[in-house]
Amino acid sequence: MSCAGFDPLSNPIPTTQPPLGCVRRFYLRLMRKHLEITPNLEPLFGTRDENLRLMEDALHARIDLLSDAVLIEGTEDCVARVERIFQDYEALRRQGILLQNGELNGMLRLVTADESVTLRSLAESGKQRSAGIKRMVQPRSVNQRRYVEAIEKNDMVFGIGPAGTGKTYLAVAMAAAALLAKKASRIVLVRPAVEAGERLGFLPGTLQEKVDPYLRPLYDALYDLLEPERVDKMLERNTIEVAPLAFMRGRTLNDAFIIMDEAQNTTSEQMKMFLTRMGNNAKAVITGDITQIDLPNPRKSGLVEALNILDGVDGIGFVRFEDGDVVRHQLVQRIIRAYEGFGRQQPELPLSLGEDERKGEPVRPSQQPQ
After folding, report:
1. How far apart are CA 71 and CA 334, in angstroms?
2. β-pair partners for 259
3. Dihedrals phi, psi of 71, to nearest 5 degrees
4. Which of 44, 28, 129, 135 is nearest to 84 (CA)?
């Protein structure tokens, strides 16, 4: 019996609508179960018991903390699922696997959303992906889990969604895991430096130093996942290469894990050029947010065009993130929703206007924007 749609805090409700003239009713049976509070179990409860509230809301059970036990009340299936979470957490703790609250909260969201997923199976799969990495590569939402699985199964994956959904971080984590497991011999991180434009020449330093500020998010992810000395050594040996998109033309990348970040700022020509760089035993992940296009004409985004052209192509995976997948500060989620609501209220305006068009005169063919 599924837990969905049942609230034990209210009176028992009929499971089905009885036939006309039938006076008999069927009710869901509630059960209660006491679970012993074992040492060091408190981290499972979360900050201010947020994890307990999550389990209550998602599994429609009632969880009360007593002096020496945890009381669970709900349907038999709901109580069994909550009990399994407690048992899995205790088993992982005994194995020495200590989950941080952010990781644990995300894992619980996955466990409560899918009956076939267990806390132990998520931890074990995350441990396998994270061999040699400082942090566990663990998705924290259903779409993040689809994204990680898509990267494992496909040679090319597009991750599309708003800021803070883990698109870049998870891609870099999967790349680092593949490199350490010797599934790839190098990592190539690519980003278009659209904001720089012609102003690059005015920035101090060498060409690499000029573009480094635009590639900083990729560096940040690497240093968060691996020891700084190890990252520096890999960068020095070109085992990890960080480069602007303009450097990709004419190259063939064999045995490489390639990531392109901020792909919404590529032109159609740049996107096609990048997608055709893949060599033998290569894997590519393309990430972007189509609501933050910095090109002069957003309709010319290579990412938007690629999503339409490549839809249905075998071997390419597409994962779309939503504001509910945001894993940064909770305010980021609310900000994204506020901007989406504001955007829907605004009338559509032309994306580009010629000088004569702004004066009320038609633009001659020779003056059409390129």
Report:
1. 34
2. 189, 285
3. -100, 125
4. 44
The whole-angstrom separation of Cα 325 and Cα 343 is 20
Number of Cβ within 10 Å of residue 94's Cβ equals 10
pLDDT by position in tens, the chain (length 370):
556 555 555 544 444 555 544 444 445 678 899 888 888 888 899 888 889 999 999 999 999 988 888 999 999 999 999 999 999 999 998 888 888 767 888 889 899 988 888 999 888 887 777 777 777 777 888 899 999 999 999 999 999 998 888 899 999 999 999 999 899 999 999 988 755 344 445 556 666 666 677 778 888 889 989 999 999 999 999 999 988 888 888 889 999 999 999 999 999 999 999 999 999 999 999 999 998 888 888 778 999 999 999 998 999 999 999 887 877 666 776 787 788 777 666 655 444 444 444 444 444 444 444 4
d(CA 28, CA 26): 7
